[in-house]
Amino acid sequence: MSGHSFTFTHALCRKPANSIVDGLRATYLGTPDPAAFMADHEDYVTALRATGAVVDVLEPLEDFPDSVFIEDAALCLKGVAICLRPGADTRRAETAALRPDLVRLFGRVIDLQADGFVDGGDILCSDDEVIIGLSERTTAQGVRDLQPIVERLGYRLRIFETPKGILHFKSDSSLLDAETILSTKRLNASGCFSSYKVIELADGEEAAANAIRFNDTVFVDKKFPNTADLLRGHGYKVEPLSVAQAAKVDGGLSCMSLRYSADAGV
Ligand code: CIR
């Protein structure tokens, strides 16, 4: 089993802004409490660091309520940062705000051009392929623009239609190791993971799908102990984390970091 899709030397996060109370959400589930969100975020950063990674934490951006969900603005692959074009109007300029930090950290940055849109939450990367879900945020034009960039980096790109009502492809799936995906039944039913071993979530646990494998640990939403047990039963080291505040604005664990390795040439 290779592993550059889940072993990382670094992560980049951004503290939640007080304006998170105005974050986008499909359904009203209560307003996030900025102080509680900050506490969850600190725990998240501490947990990533405990795996041995260096985690840089950027200052909050009050002008961008959703900017704590840094994953949607960029894609980091093989030592290259790709500036994406988030599909929501209020999030579009998050990329420009993030770009100087990506230049500082990566040296080399590629900008997604043209009129399409891609949110990082719609991109699932294994060791050799990039799977992208078309969604309300990610358009076919965006994927066409991204395709040559990821192919030049040595990845195969596959496109799927994310079922309606799911915000992002990775709201319903995550990579557990180079051959294994955690998925909801509804997303797995589309056949998008037929070349992988799939661990399906139990009914009622769909929101636990947005987990992250980061080095030796799989981080899962602590609201779902059954999923933690399921993964432990498959031999994974699991650590539950609170995403109670992020969940009120449709956020999860993967959205709050860009994960990458400094040893670019993997
Ligand atoms: C949004 O709707 O854009 C944010 N409130 C949540 C983004 C979550 N991002 C992700 O799943 N990658």
Explain what the structure shows:
The protein has 266 residues and is of the alpha/beta class. It has a single domain, classed as L-arginine/glycine Amidinotransferase, Chain A (5-stranded Propeller), CATH 3.75.10. Helices cover 22% and strands 24% of the residues. The chain is built from six helices and 15 strands. The protein has helices spanning 34-49, 94-106, 140-152, 185-188, 225-233, 244-247; strands at residues 10-14, 54-58, 74-77, 80-83, 109-111, 123-125, 129-134, 156-161, 173-177, 180-183, 197-200, 212-214, 217-221, 237-241, 258-260. The strands form five sheets. It has a three-stranded mixed sheet, with helices on one face. The chain has a three-stranded mixed sheet with strand order 3-4-5, with helices on one face. Strand 10, helix 4 and strand 11 (197-200) form a beta-alpha-beta unit. The two termini are 14 Å apart. The model has no long low-confidence stretch (mean pLDDT 96). The chain binds citrulline. Citrulline (CIR) binds next to loops.
